Amino acid sequence: MPKALTASTSIFQNRFIQAIMMSAIFLQIGIWVRNFAILLFVMEKTDNNPFAVSLIYVAEFAPIFLFSIIGGTFADRWRPKSTMIWCDLLSALSVIIVLLAIIYGTWQAIFFVTLVSAILSQFSQPSAMKLFKTHLPADKLQASMAMFQTLMAIFMIIGPVLGTFVYQTFGISFSIGVMGVAFLLSASALVFLPPDQQKTTARPEQHFWHELAEGFRYVWSNKVLKTLGGTFFTVGLAVGIIQPLGVFIVVERLGLPKENLQWLLMVNGIAMLIGGGLVMGIAKKISPQMLLALGLLVSSISIFVVGLSTSLVLTLAFQFLSGLFFPCIHIGINTLILHKTEEALIGRVNGVLTPLFMGAMASMIGLAGWLKVKFSLVTMYELSALLFFIGMLLMATLFNKKKEASPIPE
Predict the structure, then answer these.
(1) Structural domains of the chain sorted by starting position, each given as residue range(s) with its CATH number in brackets
(2) More confident position, 332 or 197
(3) Which long-range contacts does 369-377 make (Cβ < 8 Å, 24+ apart)?
């Protein structure tokens, strides 16, 4: 049996991985049904009002920017397994409240589901990162991150179809019910995680704001994490510039109807699925720094070509290439954070780095429409490609021959 396959099989046999993967599957079902059911429902209720649709994305992304710092600090204070279970249970409770509101005629309460779920995720996600650090050996972290990236890619392909089917077939009330059940099943799966570890050393209780500041100081004093913060910000700008412009590539550069955007997204999702599997196989052979830099370089090249291309075949080819190497970015970032952060500070480090990306991305998404009027679509894509390349150069400053001799950072 190939070594990569044997390593993957051994990870699947880990009790922690089994429980948290099952939880992630249920969460992905709930999230994709939520995203598409709410989108289609709001568009139907408001006659495709763009302001109402934009409120969905505000409810989804604003809490990530606003609560990630606070959530990360509390995640370091609380027991991670209990925190994740309570977050899922509270999400399920919010679904029940919204379902009752809709039954009694207040359909606008639908935004509440997305808002509450997004807020609670900022406490749950850093807790999950802490559990990875606690229950997996260092040489299994990169492969486990690849496994999760593969799962995300699978749902990027089937999620939109699933969410649309459930809403169009059964309606909004049933869709909300599916969300609630998915959150409850996720909480049930998390019960099978190993128990939270008791702290072995007594530590005086510190003030919340002192712990929050400690997270910033820790990132600033750590060369790898500080460089990663600069990369987060740069990539956030790059992603935000082109995030709303994919449909214009289809219409303006390729001269096709806007509905053809789905083919670009599908090709990208399939490539991400393949890429996640490939990274899982080579996880021990390449350092996370190199993995991240490689993903950023290929993204830069792919975006540069997509921006210039007027050929559907060429555009699809580089969309595939971009998706194939995108898991390198996600997996490299998470592995670096886990390797380079003390367990007690993982939540706060995540809370410092995430707003850098989300704030930069949200700002550029807001400016993208105005920038497109001022500059050409090609210029926007080339600027995004340049920012990805700058992010790669930042990561290149971490390369060190002695450290790169071992794929696992110290």
Answers:
(1) 1-192 (1.20.1250.20), 217-410 (1.20.1250.20)
(2) 332
(3) 369/244, 371/241, 372/245, 372/248, 377/245, 377/248, 377/249, 377/252, 377/253, 377/307
